[in-house]
Amino acid sequence: MKKIVLLITLAVIFLQVHAQNYPLLNPGFNPEITEPPAAAIEQRYITHTLYWERSALFIQPGERLTLTLRCNNWNASQPQPAFFLPEVPRGVILSSVPLSAGDRENGIILKLMLIPLTAEEFILPARVLQFNNIRFEIPSLVIRAAAR
Question: 141-145 and 121-124 as β-strands: parallel, antiparallel, unpaired?
Answer without folding.
Answer: antiparallel
